[in-house]
Each structure stands twice: as C-alpha cells, then as structure tokens.
C-alpha cells in the first residue's frame, strides 16, 4: 500500500495587505492633446468618461519596468526585503513578451531571488484575481510573503486612430505585499466570476494563435483593443453590483459598514450607476480615473495605493474592492484595513 500523503494540520491563517505601491510614467496625454490626433474634444471625453488626462509610457519602458517600480514602493512601505518575497503574481494583458512571464522580469529587476513567479490574464479584473490566489497560498501556509502586481502598457495595444477607444486608456502599475497579520482580519471575503459568452465585447482580435499577425493583415490593426462600448457598460454595472453584493453577504456586512469603495477606474458613468444601485453617495468612492484613465489590471491597485497613502483609508476600516474586465471577468473583495 502506498503511504498516505502528509497534509498540514495547521489552522488557516488570515491574510492582510501590509504595504502598497504604484507607479505612473512621466508623460501626460491630455484630452486637448487628443484633439490634435483624432476627431474628438475635451468636453466630449469628459462628459462621456470623466477622464481629462492619462499617462503614457516611453517607447523603451516596459510593463515589467513599471511593475518593478510599484513593487519596490510596496516593499519599502511594508519593510520587506527582496529575499523575503516568496511568490510574485503579475496581473497583466500587456506583458513584455508572450513568454516568459513578466513576473520573472520583475523578479530579476527587484532581486527577489527566492520567489516563484507567474503571470495571470484576467484583463481589468487581474489584480483582484491575484489577491485571491495569494490569499490561498498564505492562508494554507505554503508561502509567507506574496507580492501581487497589476501593470499595463495599454498604449502599446491602443488604436490611436479610433476615437472611441484611444481616449480611454493609459499606462501604469500598482502593487501590494500580502502576509499574515495575526491581529487583523485582513481579507474577509473574495469573489471571482467569468462569462465567456461576452468574450467578444472587449478584446484584442490579433496577435494570438487564432489570428497571428502576418504581412497580409498587419495594416488592419488587429493587435489593438476592440470594444462594444454600450454592451460593456451594461455588463460592467450588472457584474460589479452583483459581485459587491456577494462579498458583502459573505462578510456579514452592509453597504453602510463600508468606509471606502474602490472600483475599477474605467468610466465615471459606470461608477455613478453602481453608486446609485448601492444607495451610496459618491463621496464613499475613491476615483482617480480623471488623471489616469483606464489602466486595466493596474487601475484598482493604483487607486488602492493612493487611497492608502493619502489617508482615505484608516486602520480598522472596511474596504470594498470591485472590478470587471474583458473575458467577461469580474471580482470583488472586502478587506478590513
């Protein structure tokens, strides 16, 4: 008879965010700049999206470069050395290469020589997917210190001739360090979901095995973002509201208990529609999309870091994070800070 495998009898650990960090490129692309590139206007963009400017990475600035800068900021705040990082999870749709993982490049750049590394692809939902994955590794005693990163160079896959999409996106990165903190509940409840029926409402048609870029199709800009805006809006509001309700029910909390809501930073109208459904004032929502646009997997991570560093989040507060992205994917989490 084969021996029975050993299983840990240690109780599951709580998981907390002990440090956050973010990074955005120096270059600012304003709505007025876009007026010179496509047929649009500052008023049109602001009215429909709430965005007034976004950051654009340099040509030689990669996703892993930005992710590394955000990671180092989070590690400094958490007082964690590179050698202490056990695992790096990178959420991105715009990795440096198809392979290896951008997380491996981050590992090299920050000197995390002891870390296992991998990327995940869940579009704008990626950072909260990474949060849930990290929680499982820490709570089950597999790893002690996990670095999660959301980073995107969306300018590299944006069609700058399409006024319906090029006004929306920007570049940047956000990161968090997760550990067990015995005196805190930390991450209380999480939820992830997907619906592949809507996979074609927000996607990049070319560049993969289904539609490789060839000399014959290279002029069709198939390696840029395509979006059915109205359907995305509808699905975003519904999926985020349902995801928020689910984690609050699991946590035994109500919307009135939440000190700060940090939603995906895609469109101000989407956030306002969700706030109305939740019955919450906009003052409870942390919004920075006016300055950064939609940075996909980086968006909620960057907003979390800003809210943390500027005092919007206080120790003991209940925080609701909720996102949606291409796939269709969505995720939510309730955290006690």
Structure commentary:
The chain is α/β, with parallel strands linked by helices and 337 residues long. It has two domains: 16-184, Peroxisomal Thiolase, Chain A, domain 1; 187-336, Peroxisomal Thiolase, Chain A, domain 1 (3-Layer(aba) Sandwich), CATH 3.40.47.10. It is built from ten helices and 13 strands. The strands form four sheets. It has a five-stranded mixed sheet with strand order 1-7-6-4-5, sandwiched between helices. A four-stranded mixed sheet has the order 8-13-12-11, with helices on both faces. Strands 2-3 form a two-stranded antiparallel ribbon. Helix 3 packs across helix 4 (102-110). The longest helix is centred in the last third of the chain and has 23 residues, at 229-251. The radius of gyration is 20 Å and the shape is globular. The chain starts with 15 loop residues before the first strand and ends with a strand. The mean pLDDT is 95.
């Amino acid at each position: 008879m084969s021996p029975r495998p050993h299983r840990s009898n240690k109780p599951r650990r709580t998981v907390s965010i002990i440090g956050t960090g973010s990074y955005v490129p120096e270059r600012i692309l304003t709505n007025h700049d876009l007026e010179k590139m496509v047929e649009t206007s500052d008023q049109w963009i602001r009215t429909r999206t709430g965005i007034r400017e976004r950051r654009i990475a340099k040509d030689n600035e990669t996703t892993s470069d930005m992710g590394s800068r955000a990671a180092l900021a989070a590690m400094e705040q958490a007082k964690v050395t590179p050698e202490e990082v056990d695992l790096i999870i990178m959420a991105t749709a715009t990795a440096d290469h198809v392979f290896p993982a951008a997380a491996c490049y981050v590992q090299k750049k920050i000197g995390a020589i002891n870390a296992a590394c991998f990327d995940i692809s869940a579009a704008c939902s990626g950072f909260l997917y990474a949060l849930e994955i990290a929680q499982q590794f820490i709570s089950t005693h597999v790893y002690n210190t996990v670095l999660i990163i959301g980073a995107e160079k969306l300018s590299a896959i944006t069609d700058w001739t399409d006024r319906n999409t090029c006004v929306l996106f920007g570049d940047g990165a956000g990161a968090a360090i997760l550990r067990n903190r015995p005196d805190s509940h930390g991450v209380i409840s999480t939820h992830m979901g997907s619906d592949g029926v809507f996979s074609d409402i927000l996607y990049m048609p070319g560049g993969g095995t289904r539609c490789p870029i060839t000399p014959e199709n290279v002029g069709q800009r198939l390696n840029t973002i395509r979006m059915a805006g109205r359907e995305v809006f509808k699905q975003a509001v519904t999926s985020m509201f349902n995801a928020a309700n689910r984690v609050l029910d699991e946590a035994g909390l109500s919307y009135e208990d939440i000190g700060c809501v940090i939603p995906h930073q895609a469109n101000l109208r989407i956030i306002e529609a969700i706030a109305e459904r939740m019955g919450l004032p906009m003052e409870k929502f942390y919004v920075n999309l006016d300055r950064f646009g939609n940075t996909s997997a980086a968006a909620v991570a960057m907003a979390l870091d800003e809210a943390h560093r500027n005092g919007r989040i206080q120790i003991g507060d209940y925080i609701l994070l909720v996102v949606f992205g291409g796939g269709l994917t969505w995720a939510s989490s309730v955290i006690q800070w």
